Amino acid sequence: MKRLIFLLLVFIIGCSSITSVSEPKESIYTQSPENTIDPYQLADNLEFNEVWAYLMKGEEDRIKGDEPITDLCYFSAKVSGRGQIVGEYAPPDIKFNNKIRYHIVIAVIDNFALMHFVLNPNLPVRKNFINDICKVATKFDGVQIDFESVAASDAAWFFSFLKELRAALDKNKMLSIALPARRTRIADAYDYPSIAAIVDKVIIMAYDQHWSGSSPGPVAGLSWCKEVAEFAKSFIPKEKLIMGLPLYGRAWQDKNFNKSVHYKHVEEMIKTSNIQPHYDPENGAYFEYEEKIKVRVYFTDQRAIVDRLKLYSSMSIENVAFWRIGQGPSGMWQGISTKSL
Prior knowledge:
- This protein is an alpha/beta fold.
- It folds into two domains: 2-33, no CATH class; 44-253 and 298-338, TIM Barrel, CATH 3.20.20.80.
- It has helices spanning 2-22, 112-119, 124-137, 155-168, 192-196, 222-233, 263-273, 302-314; strands spanning 46-48, 50-56, 71-79, 85-86, 101-108, 142-147, 174-180, 201-205, 241-246, 250-253, 278-280, 284-286, 295-298, 319-323, 336-338.
- The strands form four sheets. It has an eight-stranded parallel β-barrel. A two-stranded parallel ribbon has the order 1-15.
- Helix 3 (124-137) crosses helix 4 and helix 6 (222-233) runs parallel beside helix 8 (302-314).
């Protein structure tokens, strides 16, 4: 009898083993973290003609030298209030596995008065500024203009400045420009077709869809990126167009406590919160209290990078740029290649 029970148990165990073998296995992506393979690491190879990347001066240690980039934009040459380039600039001493081109970035981000001054064709400062740019360019393969504070009223001066700069630069030096993202044509100083007709390359800064002063939202939402790319493609030749991708994120809090307060409001806060104020002769009266806030962070991970690269690739966009090296996730270069490497 015991022998019969034993044989019956063996038969049941054997059947259950056979059944378990035939059952479908769990997806690899639901396994424990140490065994998980990021599906975005397994994506098809994304190949572009050119891959540009920005490097901030002083952050040279962020580069390994094995990144699949064709062009490195060195950010940035300093422009004085007199419209002069201050300091000496040379390409960073980095050993890359492949030959790349170096571009010095001439940036004026938020100084409309300075732009109005240096772009004025009736002032000698403009010609001197162009000469300074040409001198800085001698050690680089190209120059990139990043003037983000040109008034609409100075548009004609800006376009003629770019023409004059292109004529003054060595013909073997590349002239590129970084332009803000647009989804429609507006009357400002960054008219895509006018500028694309002058320069060699146009980098569209397809980021800051939402910024520090806006409501919370993605730095570069996918559908927004598509609209920006479609608009850029309609005005910029394929060989000149470079779509920029952000590697940074932004954080928003639902309450902002940095504000001026009236004494009446202070009295109400002390009364309702039962706060005990303090006083010292040097700093005056003050008090502290705790407040709960909610913070929302939008950031760029590997998935976001791959999704945007796939989008641009599907739109037959051949060139991309990353702002900036050191801000992105580790391993972000996996699966990216260039035809020239």
